[in-house]
Structure formats: C-alpha cells, structure tokens
C-alpha cells in the first residue's frame, strides 16, 4: 500500500515584543493559526514572558530575543514571511532595514518616524507593505475617521470640522477613586503628557496654540450615551494630519485626550507646582519623604504647615474637591519614602501615583473614542458624531491590549493573504485596509455608533474667532 506524505506549508510570523499590548494580538493569531496555516515565533528579552504568551500552543515558538543582537535579529527576520514589531518606536528602524534587505513585510502600531518614512521608496521598489500606526491611537482613530470622511465626500460633501478624542480610562465598575482614573498604560507617558511644545490646532480658520502651563485648563466637553460626561484636552500637534486626512480646507481640526470631568483641573495642580518636570534631578530623592517632596515646591514659612502653604499657593478653598484628591494620594505623608536615587520630579510623582492608580486584580479598563465631523452638503451644514466604548475582559486581555493588538494582527493577516497590496511605508487610511478591519473589529466589541446631530461648530454666526 502506497502512503502519500502531505507537506503542509506554514506561513511564519515573527512577533518582536511580548508586552502588555501583545496579548490580544498573539491570541488572535493563535486562534487563526490552524485554518490560516500560521506559525508564530514570539521573541522577547524575557523568555518567560514570551512562553507565557504562547500558552504551549503547537503553532507557536517562544524565544529569548535581543533586538541589539544583529546576528539573531537577521536570522529570525530571514525565516519569517512577515514581521510584527511591538517594540518601542525608536527600536523599529533596524528591524525595518532588515525587512528591506530580506524582502519581508512589516507591521507596527507606532507613529511613522522620519527614519521609517525614508524607507518608503525602498519598500515600494521591493513591493513591500510597511504598515504603521495600526493600533488604537494612532490606528483605529485613523480608520474610523477616514471611513466617515470618505462617505461624506462620496455624497459630495465638504468637511469643515473634524475633532477626534481618545482616552484609556478605568471601567465604571472599577472606578473607585476621586480622580476617576487609573493607569491603563505606561504611567510615564501620562505624567509627561503635553510636554515638549505648545499644543497647536485650528478653530474656525484661526490657528490656536496652548502652552503647556495652560493646557489642562482649556478643555472640551462631550457626552457619551450610557457612560456620561467626559472632557478632552488638546494633543500636542493636531495639524500633522491635515494633509494625511485630506483636510487642508477644514476650518477646524482638533485632536485631544479624553478624561473624566474634573481630572484636568486637578492634574493642573501638579503642573503649576512643577511636579511633572523631568528636566532635572532632586537632591537626596532616595531618602526624601512624600511630605518633603511636596514641600520642596512650596515657599519657606516659619509657621505655616505644608498643607496651608499648598492651599495658599494654589488658591484653594478648604471645601474644594481637589484638596480631597490630593489627600487621597498621601502627598503629605511624612513616613512614606520616595526611595528613588537621583530622581526627577516627574519620576517621583509617577511612583506616588502608581501606588494609588494601579489597576487591582479584578479591575477592568475602558477605551473611549469620540469623533465629530462637520460638513457642508447641498448648501446645508451638517454634523455626524461617532463614538466607541470598549471594555476590557481582565488584566491580560485589557481594552487597551484589544484595541492596540487586534488591528495589528488583522492587518498582518490581510497582508499575508494578499488583500492589502499597496506597497510602501503607510498608514491605514485606504479602503483596502480600513473597511475589512473595522468590520472584523465589530465582532470583538469595537463598535462605532454614528449619529446625525445638529451642526454646532464654534462660530456658527461667523463672529470673529
């Protein structure tokens, strides 16, 4: 009897980085691995972390991976059909160059750097797709925005206003502190948010700038059905997507970060005191108490307590809720020690906040996204508001991990299957990318609710702005 041996050709995906954002990404691809004939190689500096993410799946191999080990990096990229880099943004470029050398497609969730953009011509020459900004923000924001923008244009409409807000928050059932906030992502990014230059955007045809020291006192407000009221503060540069979205003629373009109402006003206290400064180190920070840290930003007084000095400095009434928020963080505790050597104010603040704002074991996170589209059609001004709320399942499959990782995984599979063909360094702003991915995301609870609302604008009566 003649036995025929059938060889099944697996397609190899190299995933570099197995951190928090990779959980849903890896699970999605493992779930698809049988029907799609996929084998995943998951590389991380921590072999144990990579092994945890593979869950002993027969179609996955965990390896200890050092991005700076050039020989290993080139070997693994050579073996892959496509490479997913979940590394910090500044580490992508060496991976990208190797992908050019060995003619491999590449996917990242990071912003396109100048160095990455410089590889565009080579990627096109080699017919390679280098998909970037395909996570949450940037990522899902691009795709969901371009879907509505393209639909408005297809009807003959002209976009005159575009606003987009996104935030990682704590789910309502896990919202247990006065700040209505817990860290759902990198705490350092939260502490340093808004620094590095003025926020810039355009409102009713006028360019606007908000310096960092005023950023958290200029907020927008929005209502999300079923979840209540939120506020948004401006992102650093809203203007860089003007041309990307084809909105050069838009009168208003504003991108911001979502928080619960009251957060920004309270956070502004840290900004005004100087606690978010990351430009210098503090003497004796290792032995400093939380109370001493707070006092170091206040003027000397022979008799006034730290509490009184802080109230006077921030012109705060005794019954102000912001006072209770500060007390909740233990900022006046003279027994708690900072314990960080040569630390900056921002690093110390991050440590203090992490004690209070870390998600508990059973806590869940929440992603909120809100777009506003103002447009002219048939001589009338109209508006569409689009909202999305995604809740996490647990501490592994968080809303953040889902919304960052799933689009990356879906794009990877679409590229492998030849559905995304356009070569070059790119964002997910074309229909061949965003339509199938947005559709599939709906089955994972990432659903946008679009509704027609009266056009509000900022200056409907054309008064000078």
Automatic annotation (TrEMBL):
Signal peptide from the UniProt entry: none
InterPro entries xrefs: AASS, NAD(P)-bd_dom_sf, Sacchrp_dh-like_C, Sacchrp_dh_NADP-bd
An MF annotation (GO) of this entry: saccharopine dehydrogenase activity
Keyword hit for rRNA-binding: no
The entry's keywords: Oxidoreductase
Stated name of the protein: Saccharopine dehydrogenase-like NADP-dependent oxidoreductase
GO cellular component: cytoplasm
UniProt GO BP: lysine biosynthetic process via aminoadipic acid
Domain Saccharopine dehydrogenase NADP binding: start-end pairs: 13-130
Record domain Saccharopine dehydrogenase-like C-terminal: where: 135-446
Keyword Ribonucleoprotein assigned: no
């Amino acid at each position: 009897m003649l036995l025929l041996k059938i060889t099944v050709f697996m397609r190899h995906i190299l995933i570099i980085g197995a951190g928090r954002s990779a959980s849903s990404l890896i699970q999605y691809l493992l779930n698809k691995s049988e029907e799609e004939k996929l084998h995943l190689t998951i590389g991380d500096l921590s072999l144990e972390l990579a092994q945890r993410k593979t869950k002993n799946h027969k179609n996955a191999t965990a390896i200890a991976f050092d991005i700076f080990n050039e020989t290993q990096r080139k070997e693994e990229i050579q073996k892959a059909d496509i490479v997913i880099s979940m590394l910090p943004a500044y580490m992508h470029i060496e991976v990208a160059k190797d992908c050019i050398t060995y003619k491999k497609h590449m996917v990242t969730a990071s912003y396109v750097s100048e160095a990455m953009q410089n590889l565009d011509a080579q990627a096109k020459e080699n017919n390679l797709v280098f998909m970037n900004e395909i996570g949450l923000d940037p990522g899902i924001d691009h795709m969901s925005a371009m879907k509505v923008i393209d639909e408005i244009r297809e009807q003959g409409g002209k976009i005159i206003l575009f606003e987009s807000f996104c935030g990682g928050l704590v789910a309502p059932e896990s919202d247990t502190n006065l700040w209505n906030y817990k860290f759902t992502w990198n705490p350092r990014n939260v502490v340093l948010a808004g620094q590095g230059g003025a926020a810039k955007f355009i409102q009713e045809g006028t360019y606007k700038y908000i310096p960092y020291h005023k950023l958290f006192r200029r907020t927008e407000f929005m209502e999300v059905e079923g979840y209540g009221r939120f506020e948004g503060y401006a992102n650093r540069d809203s203007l860089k997507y003007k041309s990307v979205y084809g909105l050069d003629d838009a009168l208003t373009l504003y991108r911001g970060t979502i928080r619960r109402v009251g957060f920004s006003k309270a956070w502004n206290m840290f900004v005004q005191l100087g606690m978010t400064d990351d430009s210098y180190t503090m003497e004796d920070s290792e032995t400093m108490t939380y109370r001493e840290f707070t006092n170091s930003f206040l003027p000397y007084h022979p008799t006034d307590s730290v509490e009184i000095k802080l109230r006077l400095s921030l012109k705060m009434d005794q019954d102000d809720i912001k006072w209770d928020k500060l007390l909740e963080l233990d900022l006046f505790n003279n027994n708690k020690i900072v314990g960080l050597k040569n630390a900056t104010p921002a690093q110390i603040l991050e440590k203090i906040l992490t004690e209070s704002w870390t998600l508990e074991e059973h806590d869940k996170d929440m992603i909120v996204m809100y777009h506003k589209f103002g447009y002219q059609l048939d001589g009338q001004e109209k508006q569409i508001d689009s909202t999305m709320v995604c809740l996490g399942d647990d501490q592994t499959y968080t809303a953040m991990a889902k919304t960052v990782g799933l689009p990356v995984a879906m794009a990877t599979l679409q590229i492998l299957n030849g559905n995304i063909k356009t070569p070059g360094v790119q964002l997910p702003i074309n229909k061949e990318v965003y339509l199938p991915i947005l559709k599939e995301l709906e089955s994972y609870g990432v659903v946008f609710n679009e509704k027609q609302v009266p056009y509000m604008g900022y200056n409907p009566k054309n008064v000078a702005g």
